[in-house]
Amino acid sequence: MLTDLRHLLRLFAIGRCLARHDALGILQRDLPLPAAARTGLGLFQALFGRRRRNLREGERLAAAFGELGPSFIKLGQVLSVRPDLVGEALAADLGQLRDRLPPFAAATARSIVAAELGRPLDEIYASFDDTPVAAASVAQVHFAETTDGQLVAVKVLRPGVADAFARDLELFAWLAEAAERQVAGLDRLRPRDVVASLRAWVAIELDLRLEAAAASELRDNFRDDEDVIVPAIDWQRTARRAMTVQRIAGIPIEDRGAIIAAGLDPAAVADRVIRVFLKQALRDGYFHADMHHGNLFVAADGRLELVDFGIMGRLDMKTRRFMAEMLGAFLTGNWRRAAEVHFEAGYVPADRDVDAFAQACRSIGEPILGRPVDEISIGRLLAQLFQITETFGMQTQTHLLLLQKTMVTVEGVARSLDPNINFWEAARPVIEDWARDNLGPEALLRDAAGSLLRILRRLPEIAERLEKPAGDGISPAASPTARGRDPIRVLQTALLAAITGLLATLLLH
Ligand SMILES: Nc1ncnc2c1ncn2[C@@H]1O[C@H](COP(=O)(O)OP(=O)(O)O)[C@@H](O)[C@H]1O
Ligand SMILES: [Mg+2]
């Protein structure tokens, strides 16, 4: 009873905040609420409402969530990867939610670190900067130098954040339960499912040892890699609420000017971004799922530096195989196959019509394939695909959504560095390497894929030969009528087919 009362009070505050940001309309329109709840929302709107029609609905909701604190910021982030639930537009706006809060006092940060590590701060660090480098809803980061002379970054959990989460998660669970039980039609939004994802994400973010473990696993996967540096964890100075990481000194990736000034080629960096993502997702099945600008830096030697390992995605072999086969089928225009792999993976119920599904695949694939290769966005293709799969009764695969969202982010970052980036050119080395590594011990595979590999190796040479006749100074791709016969495009399509076919062959074994 007392808990109910507490939840109701908190709900009141939430309703008021949503009204002030003019964000109640979304709930009224999109949720099949009972009459009483509707009246309640209308009352809030009348009492506290402001009009902010210059902003999109999603922006208004994001602003309200930002004000409502850490748990709502996370809720917004969880919903931003669930366009299947909230729609594309809303998901995109929630993805822009700024996770920034005013910093907490340095003295507090120092005492948290000392308490967590069980020693006075000056026994742990030779110096500890008072001004944080960043402050977000869950944690803030201070630079420091350890007593043994290492330059580090120390991530410190915000005081009280665990309690705030616990309180709000209890409220969310209470609401989800009530909603699913009492409001017909709301179960479509799977509120309890959303709360469960939220709980899982938060559990990782509230225990920095888990983030440290994620960083450590990724670092192991990328030891001596020529494309990326993952900073080392200082486990002796890491506990639940404080994490010490080797400091990186790279250029923020959004600073294109500084990248150029450092003598680096932004296009090469863009290629790296894509390669690094693919190595994680394809080769390791373990990927950084928050690869936005703020978490990426460029080292002096051009390698990428990653920070922030709070959100990671995992793909098992079956899923990677599905992705490779499905993309392969799409990019070679084999719509029937594209449909079949969904059924084979068990994603779409067996009683659905494969041909109708193939037709739906064609309807999203053809418009995309008709465009120049450097304009094809795999992330968007997946987004559209997941939209149609839903109508065929495909159970939402949340790990695929996370992968898709990350692909969109990665493509966005790469394109901001190089507007003409060709995703497939950037991807090729990873796929080839992966093939080589996996070929060695498997004679059988070598036979199956050897000829494809030979073609792949000769592609640059073939490309050169094809390019020459078109050397009249006019790019064939610029003329829409010539597009279909452009030899480079034909080559690229062949390349796509070869790569994806090879990939599928390998994954199948
Ligand atoms: N190892 C590091 N070296 C240098 N700067 C870092 C390091 N880790 C974090 N930072 C800085 O702190 C910011 C916030 O850290 P991050 O781990 O991304 O926290 P959040 O989860 O709050 O986004 C980063 O964007 C970066 O500027
Ligand atoms: Mg970050």
From TrEMBL:
Pathway: Cofactor biosynthesis; ubiquinone biosynthesis [regulation]. InterPro entries: ABC1_dom, Kinase-like_dom_sf, Prot_kinase_dom, UbiB, UbiB_bact, UbiB_kinase. Pfam families: ABC1. Residues 127-462 form the Protein kinase domain. It comes from the Bacteria. Keywords: ATP-binding, Cell inner membrane, Cell membrane, Kinase, Membrane, Nucleotide-binding, Transferase, Transmembrane, Transmembrane helix, Ubiquinone biosynthesis. CDD domains: UbiB. Belongs to the protein kinase superfamily. ADCK protein kinase family. This is 2-polyprenylphenol 6-hydroxylase. The gene is ubiB.
